[in-house]
Amino acid sequence: MKIVLFGTLLLTLVGCTTLNSGLEKWSSLNNSKREYEVKAAWIRRTTEKDNLGFRKINRMTPVLAGDLVIQGNGLDGIVAYSRDNGQERWRLPIENGAEPSATLIRDRLFVGASDGNFYSIEASTGTVQWTFNTKSENLAAPLLEDGIVYFLAGNSVFYALDAATGRQIWLHSRQDTSQFSIRGGSQAALNNGILYVGFSDGSVVALNAKTGSSLWEVQLNRNKRFRDIDATPVVEGNQLYVAGYDDKLYCLSVDKGEVLWRIEGGGYSGVTVVGDKLIYPTTNGEVQALNKASGDKLWSYKLKDGIATQVRTYKGVLVFGESQGSLRFLDANAGTEVGSFEPGRGILSSPQVDEKAGRVYFISGEANLYAIDAGWIRTPYF
């Protein structure tokens, strides 16, 4: 009899404990709110010395290579850090630094620099494998495909090099007669053996990737001031999306370059395709969501400071930098801000995301590399 009563009492106590635990969890969730937390995991100065002179431009998107994050600055070189704690692993001095973004394939990093050279670098050690002299600043990110690296030099010469040796395969040169130009350059887009490249004279050219022969070209931006097409063209199906700096966003046919539609508002960075939407950072200080098929505007977010970098997707939100402001996180469906981080002196580098680690990397205008932890958390109301 005592055993039965004890068992009954034990079951009652266990049941009450489980119920209370469930009620506590429910109460905790009911009395909490969902917030987007953005905080710095670590910060590192990428320059070897303090920059006390002219402020340089830092535009390279951080490169994730194994357990490394590799970052170039616009002053004195390229540095590799441990992704988890920011410990410096190697440093490659380059006069006037490396401004454009780089391309990684296996253990090779390809990047153009401001010293007039294009580099192939062993990513794990920072050892230079070869260099190619362009006799010009290099301001555009390279593209690597089938053992060939393609890039646009600052003198409007587009190169195709053997990625293993640096040997020139072909080049395409254009004469730019415009008096003013925006600092930057277009990364090529490749689709079905055809390269699509924007130039500072306002034209887009389709080139045979093997031979460099021109298939078609179209003059888009005819503005007298800044005709540059520095935004990377984006191919989606049979459509090509490309923006002129102070002109318009164009949707072209990939086969002939015919204009299918256009919208007002120029762009410095390429569009980002998210489902049936285009996310478009404009040079008039907006980030727009457009219907991919028609260009119709779905929503618009007005920046607080400057213009936006190219937008990245990160765990269901959009992330980008402001040229004179903060790192911003937006709801992808509504375009409303969910979080931000202020590094000081703005951001010209499109951020790099590591969704698995829940981390975002970017370089600030002060040439500081940031590792940011970002995500949704629950906090109590009281």
Automatic annotation (TrEMBL):
Assigned keywords, A-Z: Lipoprotein
Pfam families membership: PQQ_2
Domain Pyrrolo-quinoline quinone repeat: 77-301
Protein name: Putative lipoprotein
Natural source organism: Bdellovibrio bacteriovorus (strain ATCC 15356 / DSM 50701 / NCIMB 9529 / HD100)
